[in-house]
Amino acid sequence: IVKKEIPTDFLVEDSELSVINDIRPSAPVHILVLPKIHIESIIQLEEKDKEIVSKLIYTAREMAKKGTYRL
Question: What are phi and psi of 17, to 5 degrees?
């Protein structure tokens, strides 16, 4: 998805992350906030990943807070 090999509508996109609607939502609104770097699992996070993890969480918060699902 991030490499744009699968078509989707990006709600937000910048050099570090993408936000899309889930194609199989389990709630009326279900978005995915995806890093552009590959993170295999949370256990493999390193010190250098702190900024992107923080940005992912903050972006999800801002989208939920605005309720528009577009920043």
Answer: -150, 165
